[in-house]
């Protein structure tokens, strides 16, 4: 079965705000599936990024209407102008809702798996955030550990039925955490609001050594979230994490949350990450967006992701060592040496965490993205919490 079999074509002229697109607008540059499916194999035409719309809303809790979001976002995205880079983006069209929600999950899973295998980065325009589960299962056949960054005001967990809740936008994390085979290495929940999260959920994250960051910790210090996003293989962005005044197009919108420019910056962090191989923007509902402000914001977030993608430094710690500055320090009353590296290209930091006990056959160390503050903490003699949590997962 070809990937084209999963998609329905789009009509790009429906997204044009004028008579025609200008030469530097996305609508003129994107290889869109209108009459023929984009070539995903030819080396000279193969896209770097593929837009994937998913017209599925049946498992989106209290937010019916999200299936209309892909084309609503395109109306804004196609009229944006490309940056100063040679861009190759394909729009594969929309995955229509299957006979059952499970059929849609299987279709999206297959699409994500095939695109990632071909080194094409899927940008998913949902749909409900339950599609994050399908996005995650797309990595199952790739035989790799997966780290997930979720930007959401809530933890989408069911604490009452931990093992067998129905799969929807409020419970998909249960299914990811309990999925077998287990290839989940880390889960980061960013921009959550404490009064929307149960203490049991927070305790569960702590026990599993997952990462969290409250919205208050990010206020005015958005760069605090960058290492967690940089560590992720896949990113899931719930539009409900953005405050209602900035993004009203969500039936579950909150008065508090991220500002629009902060959401764009987080999307750019994801794009700049050498490790990120898929991203999904979920829970945008055009029904609650009569002026199109939220659709415009989502389009700008995708633009920022694309801009970040074409600004990648490819500086994840590898050889040659000359591309990095290496720092070594020991803790108080401890003979163990902590190793940090800083990229000369981007000034970004990583921390070396060794495998102990059941050591990896192919790797001796795990490089975890960190901040300069983690290095300062180690220099002062304290063990960075990030090092300890990562070490626990490497046992």
From TrEMBL:
GO BP: any one term: putrescine biosynthetic process from arginine, via agmatine
CDD domains: Formimidoylglutamase
Molecular function per GO: agmatinase activity; metal ion binding
Signal peptide: none
InterPro entries in the cross-refs: Ureohydrolase, Ureohydrolase_dom_sf
PANTHER family linked: ARGINASE/AGMATINASE, GUANIDINO ACID HYDROLASE, MITOCHONDRIAL
Family: Belongs to the arginase family.
Protein name: Arginase
Organism lineage: Bacteria, Pseudomonadati, Bacteroidota, Sphingobacteriia, Sphingobacteriales
């Amino acid at each position: 079965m070809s990937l084209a079999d999963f998609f329905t074509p789009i009509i790009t002229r429906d997204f044009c705000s004028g008579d025609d697109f200008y030469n530097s607008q996305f609508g003129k540059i994107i290889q869109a599936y209108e009459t023929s499916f984009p070539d995903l194999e030819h080396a000279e035409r193969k896209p770097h990024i593929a837009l994937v719309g998913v017209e599925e809303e049946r498992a989106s809790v209290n937010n019916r209407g999200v299936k209309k979001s892909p084309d609503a976002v395109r109306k804004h995205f196609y009229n944006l102008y490309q940056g100063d880079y040679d861009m190759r983006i394909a729009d594969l069209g929309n995955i229509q809702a299957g006979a059952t929600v499970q059929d849609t999950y299987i279709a999206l899973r297959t699409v994500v798996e095939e695109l990632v295998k071909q080194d094409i980065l899927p940008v998913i325009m949902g749909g409900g955030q339950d599609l994050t589960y399908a996005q995650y299962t797309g990595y199952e056949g790739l035989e790799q550990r997966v780290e997930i960054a979720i930007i959401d005001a809530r933890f989408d967990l069911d604490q009452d039925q931990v093992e067998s809740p129905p799969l929807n936008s409020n419970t998909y994390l249960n299914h990811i955490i309990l999925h077998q085979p287990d290839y989940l290495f880390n889960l980061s929940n960013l921009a959550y609001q404490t009064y929307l999260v149960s203490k049991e959920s927070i305790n569960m994250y702590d026990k599993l050594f997952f990462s969290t960051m409250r919205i208050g910790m990010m206020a005015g210090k958005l760069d605090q979230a960058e290492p967690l996003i940089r560590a992720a293989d896949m990113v899931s962005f719930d539009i409900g994490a953005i405050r209602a005044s900035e993004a009203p197009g969500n039936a579950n919108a909150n008065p508090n949350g991220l500002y629009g420019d902060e959401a764009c910056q987080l999307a750019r962090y994801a794009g700049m990450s050498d490790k990120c191989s898929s991203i999904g923007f979920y829970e945008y509902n055009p029904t609650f967006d009569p002026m199109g402000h939220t659709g415009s914001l989502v389009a700008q977030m995708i633009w920022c992701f694309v801009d970040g993608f074409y600004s990648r430094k490819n500086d994840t710690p590898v050889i040659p060592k000359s591309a990095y500055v290496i720092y070594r320090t020991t803790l108080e009353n401890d003979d163990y040496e902590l190793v940090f590296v800083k990229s000369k290209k981007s000034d970004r930091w990583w921390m070396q965490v060794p495998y102990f006990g059941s050591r990896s056959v192919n790797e001796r160390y795990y490089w975890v993205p960190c901040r300069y503050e983690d290095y300062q903490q180690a220099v002062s003699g304290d063990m960075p919490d990030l090092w300890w949590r990562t070490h626990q997962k490497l046992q």
